[in-house]
Amino acid sequence: MSEASAETTVRLGPAVANLLRSIWRQRELVALGLLLGLALGIWALPKVLSTGSTYDVTVRMEIQQSPVDAIFQPGPAFPAAEDGMGVSTEVLKDIEIANEVAKSVRARDESLTGTTLLGGLNFAAVAGTRYVDVTYADPDPRLATTVAQRYAERFADKRNAIEKKRFDDAVARLRAYALGLDAAAKQAVQDKINEAQIKGFTTGELTRVVGQPIVTTTGPPLSRTVMLGIGLLLGLGIGVGLALLVETAFRKVITPTDAEEASELPFIATVRKNGIRRTPLPVIDRPFSPAAEDYRRVGTALERQGLGSDIRVLAIASADPGDGKSLLAANLAHSLARQGREVVLVSSDMRRPEVEKLLGLGQRAGLAETLQDDPVPAVALLVSINDHLLVLPAGMPSKHPGELLASKRLHETIQTLRRVGIVILDTPAARMSADAIALSGVADATLLVARSGVTRMRSLHETTSGLRRDRIRQLGVVLVGTSSSMLRSLTLRRGYREPPEVEAEEPEQDLAEPQPVQFTPRPVPYEASPAEEDPLPSEVTELNATEERIRRAAE
Fold first, then answer.
1. pTM reported for the whole predicted model
2. Could you tell me the strand order of the sheet in which 389-392 lies?
3. SS3 304
4. Spatial separation of the C-alpha atoms in residues 458 and 513, rounded to whole Å
5. Are the CB atoms for 333 and 389 separated by under 8 Å?
6. Which residue among 270, 341, 487, 512 is the one 20 to 30 A from 365 at the CA level?
7. Of 389, 387, 365, nearest to 378 (Cα)?
8. What's the fold here for domain 55-217?
C-alpha cells in the first residue's frame, strides 16, 4: 500500500467512525424510517409504480367462412395483406361499434371517443388459423379489458346477424331462380342449398369470442418482494438522513474536542460513568472506582488553577438540567473535604434543589432564608456533614428565587461563607433562568459541566457566550458520563494524551472493603458554647457573635 493511500485511510477512519456513531445515537429515527419504508413497500409503491405501466388486454375471436361462400365460392373473406404476412384485418374496424363501446365506458374515461378507441385497437390475425386477436392498451387494466371484450362481442353479434340475413337472401334467390329450370338443373341448385345449410348447422356461429381476456403489462414486472426491498431501502435512507440532520442541527457533546469546540474554554478533565454498581457519590461509596478517581482528578486540576488560594468561591454551572453539575459539585466537595480542606457546599438552586437529595438532608431552611427581608445568618443554617464539609441547603423561598438572588444579601452571604473555607455553588441550569448568572457573578470563577451524549453543543455554546458577555471568569469545562473505551479511542485519536488509566482493583480478602461513610446531618449551633467542641474555625464563632449583636440592634 502506498503512503498516499495509507494517509487517506487514517484520515477517513475517524470520519467514518464518527458518522456511524452519529447514526447510532439517533437509532430511533433510523428505526422509524425502516417502519416508514415497510409501509411504502406494502401500500404506496405498488400504487405509484403501477401508474407508470400500460396494460395490454387481448381478446381472441374466431371468424369462420360464411355458408354463402359455399354456394357462390367468392374470394376470401379477408383479402391477402400487402406484405404477404397474413390476411388484412381492416374489415374488422367498425366506427359504429367503436362509438357504441366508447359511450358505454364514458363514465370511466370522459375523453374516450369512438375515433380514439378505434385508433387504440389493434387487430392481429393468427397465421394459419381462423383466429384474430383484438388488443387494447390503457393504464387502467379494467378499462382496457372492458373495451377489448365489448368491442369483440359487439363485432361478433353484428357479423353473425349480417351473415344470417345474407344467407337467407341467397337461399331465397336460388329457389326463385330454380323455378324456371329443368329437373336436373333444379336438383343441382337444391344440392347447393342443402350443402350450405349443412355447413351452417355444423359450424354454428360464424364469429365468436374464444377464451378469456389476456392481460399483460408493458412496465417492468416488479414483485411484492422487490417493492418491499425498495421500500426498506428508501426508509433506511430517510431514517439515516434524518439522523444526520438531527445530529447536525442538534449536535451533542461527545468528546473533549466537542466540549472545547462548543464552549471555547480549556478542557479540564473527564469523569467516567460509575459502571454497573452506580452510586451518586462514588467518592464516598466507591472510593476505588474510576469515577471517584476522576472526581479527585478534577479537584487536583482545579487546585492547580488556583482553587483554595485566589479562587475561594467556585460556581458549578451547566446549560440544561441533567448535565451532572450537582453530582460534580457534591463529589468535588467530598473529595476536597477528604483531603482536609474546609469546604462549604451551597445548594443554590432554589427551583430544583438536588444537593439535599444526594446527601439525604431533606427540605430545611437555608439560602432562601438568608436572602429574605428578615434574614437568618447563613452560619446558623449550615449543616455539618463531616469534620471538613458543611452544607447550606437551598431553603424554602417565600419570594421568587430570581428576586432573592438579585438582592445585595447574596454578596454578603457569600462573603461570610468564604471565610469558612472553599465555597462551591451548585447553580441552576443556565439556560432555564438568570439565576446562574447572578450566582456566577458573586463567585471568583465558574466551572462548566457537560454530559457526554446529552448536552447539546449549541446549548453549551450559548451558555458560555452568555457568561462571557457578563464578563464572568470561566475556568474551563468538565465532561462527565463518558465511557472508558470511547474516551481512550476518541481522545487519543484527536490529539489528547490523558494520564494512563489505572484500573483500581478491588481490595483483597484480607483487606476490609471501605464502607460508605455514614453521617447524621446536624445544624451548626448559632452560638458556640466554650465547653463544647466548636466544629467551625474561631473566626466563624466571632462572626456569629458579631451578627447576633447586629441582629439584636436592628430589633
1. 0.55
2. 267-272, 474-482, 445-451, 313-318, 422-426, 343-347, 389-392, 383-384, 522-523
3. helix
4. 43
5. yes
6. 341
7. 365
8. Bacterial polysaccharide co-polymerase-like (3.30.1890)
Which cell numbers in the block locate residue 117?
Answer: 378507441
CB-based contacts of 169, cutoff 8 Å, min separation 6: none
Residue 349 C-alpha cell reads as 438552586
What grid cell was written down for 25? 445515537
Burial class (CB in 10 A: 0-12, 13-18, 19+), 60: buried
In one letter, which amino acid is 114? G
The C-alpha cell at 7 is 494517509
510 backbone φψ class: left, alpha, beta (φ>0; ψ -120 to 50): alpha
Other beta carbons within 10 angstroms of residue 397's beta carbon come to 19
- What cell numbers appear for 54 in the block? 400500460
Strands 474-482 and 267-272, how do they pair?
A: parallel
pLDDT in tens, the chain (555 residues): 444 444 434 444 667 877 887 788 788 999 999 999 999 888 888 777 765 678 889 999 988 877 777 666 554 444 444 433 344 678 888 999 999 999 988 877 778 888 988 888 999 988 888 899 999 988 888 889 999 999 999 999 998 898 888 888 888 888 888 887 888 888 887 887 787 777 777 777 888 899 899 988 776 566 788 888 999 999 999 999 998 888 777 888 988 999 999 999 999 999 998 766 678 899 999 999 999 999 999 999 999 999 999 999 999 999 999 999 999 999 999 999 999 999 999 999 998 999 999 999 988 999 999 999 888 999 999 999 999 999 999 999 988 999 999 989 999 999 999 999 999 999 999 988 889 999 999 999 999 999 998 899 999 999 999 999 999 999 999 999 987 654 444 444 444 444 444 334 433 333 333 334 344 444 444 333 333 334 444 444 444 544 554 455 444
CATH superfamily, domain at 253-523: P-loop containing nucleotide triphosphate hydrolases (3.40.50.300)
Q: Is 23 helix (H, G, I), strand (E, B) or coil?
A: helix
**Do the beta carbons of residue 526 and residue 548 sit within 8 Å?**
yes
Cell of 209: 369470442
Domain segments of the chain as ranges: 19-51+223-247, 55-217, 253-523
